[in-house]
Specification:
Layout lengths: L6 H17 L2 H8 L7 H9 L18 H13 L6 H15 L2 H13 L4 E4 L1 H4 L8 E3 L2 E10 L6 E6 L2 E6 L5 E5 L9 E10 L1 E2 L7 H36 L1 E2 L2 E2 L4 H30 L1 H29 L11 H13 L4 H11 L11
Parallel strand pairs: 1-4
Antiparallel strand pairs: 2-3, 3-7, 4-5, 5-8, 6-7, 9-10
Length: about 375
């Protein structure tokens, strides 16, 4: 058995990588991250044209009907290029939420919008990772009140999918009673927000309280793609460190010729490469081995988060004093990795969820 990416998956990654190399350099990232909304319409349209936004949308609803490994390839490529786009929320989490929780009528109406990219979707799941005080949404008579933190998609999103107590709801950003406030994080390459609701009209996806399994599925997909995004960003930092070691000279020789630098780079790549296989298997399990899906998604995110943290530290230090400056821009990848580490649960939380899924722990962690 040969375990790896198929030819069409490799082609998808190569095609997207070539586009981004030609259309998004570090100066372009700086310009986009300086805006109030960290979203590039040009890149968004390109993702739609290449079919990336409809990868997980079934063909009958205008998508490609592909699998999680295809989505993982896109996430890894976007992380490598620190692309300012809410691919995760719109193209991974939102379509799965609708497919697994929504009615047939809702699928027919909403999924084509996601595949085309004409309407941008955001989604908030953080409040179901750990129960936070005063974050439960109150739903009554087709209206919702309460706050939902860490909306993935931020100010660019036009339709919002929110999770609470086993229920997924859909809210129009422009609806009365809806306020979306920018949530500032260290990562300026993506948009996050807090949603405040007061008697805002909402639509329940499927039945109230009937989305527990759907939320678990969506969380698994999110963790796999965050791990892939982190892997891409870590690979980019490693590649830059290798290139720097070739050109930076001390004592009339490249620093890459020093045994200590060779050892550091060798240790980093031996940590990085197995992470790729782990993510691939987690994506495979999501589609083909459902009994392992939760455990593998949690393990992949937790492990890759730890590996990437080590890579960010070592590669930044390898650049010396320049590594901490804005000139090199290493901080963009560094900060993206750090936000990915905590989003949808840090390593401690995700490992605990893996233990729960495997019957080794009695219950999920709840906030004090």
């Amino acid at each position: 058995m040969r375990f790896g990416l198929s030819e069409d998956q490799k082609m998808l990654g190569d095609m997207l990588n070539k586009y981004l190399e030609s259309n998004l350099d570090l100066e372009g990232v700086r310009e986009l991250t300086g805006n109030d909304v960290h979203h590039s319409p040009a890149i968004w349209n390109a993702l739609a044209e290449q079919g990336a936004l409809g990868i997980l949308v079934p063909e009958e609803f205008g998508g490609s009907g592909l699998g999680m490994l295809h989505a993982e390839v896109v996430s890894e490529t976007l992380g490598r290029h620190i692309v300012p786009a809410s691919y995760l929320g719109h193209a991974v989490l939102a379509p799965l939420a609708i497919q697994h929780a929504g009615s047939e009528q809702q699928k027919e109406k909403l999924l084509p919008e996601i595949a085309s990219g004409e309407v941008i979707y955001g989604i908030a799941l953080t409040d179901v990772v750990m129960n936070r005080e005063n974050t439960q949404l109150s739903i009554s008579g087709g209206k919702v009140t309460g706050d939902s933190t860490f909306l993935i998609g931020g100010q660019a999103a036009e339709k919002l999918i929110l999770a609470t107590a086993g229920t997924l709801i859909l809210v129009e950003k422009s609806a009365p009673g809806v306020t979306v406030e920018t949530l500032t994080t260290v990562d300026k390459t993506r948009d996050f927000a807090v949603v405040r609701l007061k008697d805002a009209p909402c639509e329940i996806l499927g039945k109230e309280g009937g989305a527990t399994d759907a939320i678990e599925t969506v969380m698994n997909a999110g963790r796999i793609n965050l791990a892939a995004d982190t892997l891409g960003a870590a690979q980019a930092m490693f590649n830059q460190a290798v290139e720097y070691a070739r050109v930076r000279e001390q004592f009339d020789r490249p620093i890459g010729s020093f045994q200590s630098i060779k050892h550091i780079l060798a240790e980093l790549i031996t940590e990085l490469e197995p992470s790729r296989s782990l993510i691939w298997y987690a994506a495979h399990a999501f589609d083909e081995v459902p009994e392992e899906a939760t455990a593998m998604a949690c393990h992949a995110k937790a492990h890759v988060s730890e590996v990437a943290k080590n890579i960010t530290r070592a590669t930044t230090e390898m650049h010396g004093g320049m590594g901490f400056t804005d000139l090199l821009g290493l901080h963009f990848w560094f900060k993206r990795i750090e936000v990915n580490r905590q989003l949808l649960g840090g390593p401690e939380i995700t490992r605990h969820h893996a233990a729960v899924a495997q019957g080794w722990a009695p219950e999920k962690i709840t906030a004090a």
